[in-house]
Amino acid sequence: PEFRFLTDHQGIIWDDGNAHFYGINDSMLDGLTSKVTFSNNWYYVTSITSMGARHLLLRRVPVLEPKTGEVMGYSYNAVVLDNNFALMEKLKNEGNVDNVVLVANDIPVASSLAGDESYKIFDVLKRKETQKKLDQLLIIQTPIEVNAAITNLKLLTVQDNQSVVTLQIQHFLAMLASVIGMIMIALMTKEWIENRVVEELGSLMSYTRSAREEKGFERFGGSDIEEFDHIGSTLESTFEELEAQKRSFRDLFNFALSPIMVWSEAGVLIQINPAARKELVIENDIETMHPVFKGFKDKLVPHLRMAAQGATLTGVNVPIGDKVFRWNLSPIRVDGDISGIIVQGQDITTLIEAEKQSNLARREAEKSAQARADFLAKMSHEIRTPINGILGVAQLLKDSVEAEEQKNQIDVLRHSGEHLLAVLNDILDFSKIEQGKFNIQKHPFSFADTMRTLENIYRPICENKGVELVIENQLDGNVEIFTDQV
């Protein structure tokens, strides 16, 4: 089922009349042309007519004027999918399936069902989402894309699954028989293995138990079964390595110069190395009540309780007699449970004494620095007062004299006093530097005045010694320097 029509640039100029059989009038035909964008491509179009929704595949082909190649119009070809039995039959034959059903939004549009099947379209729609593996119908749902565009069309293919179901049942029965046979063989094999290897396995287990009971390292006696002999040899090598490690740890524990102890969670001494025995004055179990050990234990118990809760303690200072030891306490975990606490100490008596001497020296240095600061503060006040008096009298003398030479001499006196006051301030600045309170006071001043002051101070001294003082200043007289003047 299909229909055709022609259009020019004004509208529809011809149709074959078949569109009216599907409820599509002229205005609907005109509306269909707007849904086709490019030529020679198929488009999926849904049109609502008086006879219901129609699902169409629409394509247009340009009509050209042979001489000029001008597009005179378009030829439209529409295929109606609704109840298109011929199309469904072709899809069924090409897909090599029993039947096909075309649905749009889960509503059947067309199918190849003839009516004599044991199932209906409703059964196909109902079973398309089933997860049953042994269903009699195998239904596959395939989404349809038209011109690379996703549509609401889906093609359901129906295949009789009876042969597959029969094959699966036969396979299941064969697997069941195989499992039963394997179980019987396994039981027979188990009986044979028990009779064959029970003695060798018992020998191997006896060897492993002897290693667990810590009776000392023993060599494996060998086995007639190659696999068991290999296992026994491997265990022998492993036990030998473990014994060597135990011996190394035992030697490390016994010959360590630092005191090492192992305590239980309840605060009971389990093991102690010779270095700890020496420090705690313990020669045998009776001497665990020695006052030195008892005093040490009383101070260590609170830390043992914390370690028993799972905490790792480091840097704990607990004295033994006149010596100070720094202890590290670490819980011993076995399968997530705490089975003991290992305590290791280090003699830090010398370090503590050095810290005391360092603190004493620091306090003495602080006292000395404070005394120097107090002295400087006092001397500052005692010296500033007469210097300020000299500067004041020099200023009064300068205002009272008329001769230029006398004014210059008074300037020398005044600048010398100011310089002496600045030197005093520098001495005080050292104290401020030590206290982190020193501040540089920057301000602009004349470079020529500074040179003139230096010349007035040192020229008389040089003349008295017969030395010629020459100062070369090539800078402009108005040059100023921005820094601390002293």
TrEMBL record:
Residue ranges constituting the Histidine kinase domain according to the UniProt record: 378-486
Membrane topology field: Multi-pass membrane protein
Principal location: membrane
EC numbers on record: 2.7.13.3
UniProt keyword Cell wall biogenesis/degradation present: no
Gene3D superfamilies hit by this protein: 1.10.287.130, LuxQ periplasmic domain, C-terminal subdomain (2.20.20.100), LuxQ periplasmic domain, N-terminal subdomain (3.30.450.220), PAS domain (3.30.450.20)
CDD domains reported in the protein's UniProt record: HisKA (cd00082)
One matching Pfam family: HisKA
Annotated catalysed reactions: ATP + protein L-histidine = ADP + protein N-phospho-L-histidine
A GO molecular-function annotation: histidine phosphotransfer kinase activity
Keywords on record: ATP-binding, Cell inner membrane, Cell membrane, Kinase, Membrane, Nucleotide-binding, Phosphoprotein, Transferase, Two-component regulatory system
Subcellular location: Cell inner membrane
InterPro entries: His_kinase_dom, HisK_dim/P_dom, HisK_dim/P_sf, LuxQ-periplasm_dom, LuxQ-periplasm_N, PAS-like_dom_sf, Sensor-like_sf
GO cellular component: plasma membrane
Class in the EC hierarchy, top level: transferase
Name of this chain's protein: histidine kinase
